[in-house]
Amino acid sequence: MDSATATSVETSNGSVTHRPGQTLTEVEPANSTTAQRAITTPQRKYRHVAAVHSKVRPSCLSHDSTAAPSFIGFRNLMVIVLVAGNLRLMIENLQKYGVLICIRCHDYRRSDIMVGGLLYFLIPCHLFAAYLIELAAAQQARGSRTRIKDDDAGPSEADKKAFHSTWVLVAWAHAINVTLALAITTFVVYFHVHHPLIGTLTEFHAVIVWLKTASYAFTNRDLRHAYLHPIKGEHIPELYKECPYPQNITISNLGYFWLAPTLVYQPVYPRTDKIRWSFVLKRLGEVFGLSAFIWVASAQYATPVLQNSLDKIASLDLASILERLLKLSTISLVIWLAGFFALFQSFLNALAEILRFGDRSFYDDWWNSESVGAYWRTWNKPVYTYFKRHVYIPLLGRGWSHQAASTTVFFVSAVLHEILVGVPTHNIIGIAFLGMFLQLPLIAITGPLEQMKLGQTGKLMGNIIFWVSFTVFGQPFAALMYFYAWQAKYGSVSRQVV
Amino acid sequence: MDSATATSVETSNGSVTHRPGQTLTEVEPANSTTAQRAITTPQRKYRHVAAVHSKVRPSCLSHDSTAAPSFIGFRNLMVIVLVAGNLRLMIENLQKYGVLICIRCHDYRRSDIMVGGLLYFLIPCHLFAAYLIELAAAQQARGSRTRIKDDDAGPSEADKKAFHSTWVLVAWAHAINVTLALAITTFVVYFHVHHPLIGTLTEFHAVIVWLKTASYAFTNRDLRHAYLHPIKGEHIPELYKECPYPQNITISNLGYFWLAPTLVYQPVYPRTDKIRWSFVLKRLGEVFGLSAFIWVASAQYATPVLQNSLDKIASLDLASILERLLKLSTISLVIWLAGFFALFQSFLNALAEILRFGDRSFYDDWWNSESVGAYWRTWNKPVYTYFKRHVYIPLLGRGWSHQAASTTVFFVSAVLHEILVGVPTHNIIGIAFLGMFLQLPLIAITGPLEQMKLGQTGKLMGNIIFWVSFTVFGQPFAALMYFYAWQAKYGSVSRQVV
What we know:
The first copy, chain A, has 16 helices and no strands. By secondary structure, the first copy, chain A, is an all-alpha fold. In chain A, 37% of the residues are buried.
């Protein structure tokens, strides 16, 4: 009811046919000031005759309308409905269960903490062994290089053979060393660490070191090759010139790689100039806050839903299992998003800042993925770039097809997923393996959508398929299965009675 | 894992410092074709050395990032979560209550239908009486005009007095006639119509005719004034020249106004050229489909929630009432949106098309409202333009302040709301009156936000305040109160046992 709008509408005398000039003359031919006043002030008489319906015009939601109106208000409404809906569920949950958060209830056994701590210091020892292996190889390469330079005739067939046999030896040494690290950790976690959180952290550490050592070995193999037998047209990235092979084989260089937020070894990384400690503190604050949030969400919201699902899985009541999956999907999605942000944005950025590691592209905008494949390329770039550099591209180089190389990548990834989930929960039931490996047919199905160039509709469809497969069937189903398997084997994870 | 991307990334040898020209010379100085092949095919050797971390770059969610990434995927996710969440609630509802939809269960009493039908034909009779009143006034005006023309000296003081006394007489005749229509309907509905749906429809009809007759009387008063005593500088809209006063006082002209989708009388409306029957059929199909949807939603989802809230209101358990309000808000919002679309888009457009009524601007994009005031200006334009033309602007013209005129408009509107809701439910408890009248302080509070020019943030805040006040506290609270009052007085509205 603002008077400004009112005035302009009501005094226009809204006729469709009148011409602007004519109106003015009609209003007051003699005095233009009066005429202007007649336009800017409300009509004094005949107030009830104004033609509010002065022209033919469509409703703004009609197809007759030339431009669709903005729907930004409905986006805001969606956010509010989500907040309100979940606020309601939180009240319901609190009425039903009371407060379930309890620090002392958790069953962190003394032996678990001891074993976990021991393994935390044991795993890096294998890194030291890897350093010694590379050091020996580098020594031998220095010797060969001197011999080749003395010859001045380029590498002989015998030299190449010697290089290959050295590589076989080095590869075996690395493989035995690092697989021992993984095998010992896996064995100890599976048989001697009860609490799944401690087990998962330890197993993650071992798998990361396993991957990093493989990258270290492969990269140094190629660097050594280039050092001994450079091929024309194949060159080492200029970035590495700051620290050429074998100068990079130092304990500090390897130590930096151990801590750096990447799985891919490079002798030199792009670095930032200084550490912004305020940035580090903010990120660590985020990690702390989000971890607390995840803990509360798991204990208060996810656990009861999982608990309530047990007899429904046992009785194989499909409608009820679907209902449970849908209920679980919201909370598992929220936890997943918080965990993603805490790990990939906050923690890795804090770590990178402390190490002055320059390349912070740990993820891309995976939430806009237009296909399942796009999601796997963007959500976890450390793992994606690792498998691309050390598995996919080398296999293509050996003449494998795209299909075969992709399958290998997803097979290796699926095995690692099963190790990371199945071993700490003491249930190697293959759901994590399948959940990963079945991405391949899913990518194959959704791939055409990506390439069909359907425009906005195709992109929207692809994004929706990605979210549904990810949210409704991916995370919650796997979580439900491992929780069920755990409960079937051990009963409750904590001492509290739910 | 698309090989195109892989190739380009892996072969770029990603150094930060190299210059493009230099790279080409380094690769193969002699042959540019070979050089190009080196770029487009994967590197044959040294595959594990590629610098995947080749430059300093921030994470895309960091503040360091120059541009924020798109979040369109999260909008899609919200839609999915809403659909999934409500799908879950629908399964839960079906498990708990079974199918509640039942055509024969509803208590449409024979007497209700008889009385409703009778009133449906009685109300237009008062329109005929209004026509007769205007016809008499027009006859008298024709006589005056002939007399004035004979005089040729302009209207005398006596003439003006005569006009005024005629208007007082005409106004009283109209007021008595139309208020009789409203009063009879209200009396009969309150005491003799049990079913609230039949009562509401009848009461709506009476209120609409009441408003239309008032507009008819006011507009013709001004037209008569202009016909008898034209004032220089004050003119009648050109649109009306097709049918000047008193030619517009015909039974067909009033009949068109009775049916037309507007509350504001104009002798002439903008018209379309022809009736598109396919358009009419589509709109009527929407009305039918949405009505069925609203019926199912009310019976299956809204009724159980309302039913479950009864003892919580009785016990004044505030946390539980809030929980119920939040649960009710979703379904009442969905029903409201469906009802809005069915009435304002589908029904009024169908009616307008049949009557070739040109101005279809029955609403604007109220969902983007940046304040509560903007919502009231845009969601129901027939009522808004009515009150602006016949109450707000005339009061401003009499020297009232914006504040006083607005208060009057909201007071009249609040009274009408209470009549429309309180009478058919036989509970004049004042909640509808207050719900409307308390909009004034709400508008006063949110108004500054609109004017503060806070940019996007202010608009977003305003829109969120509007939605929350509208969704969470507006509709569901009023529905809950009248349902409670009804149940307290009569027990269940239908014979079914919930």
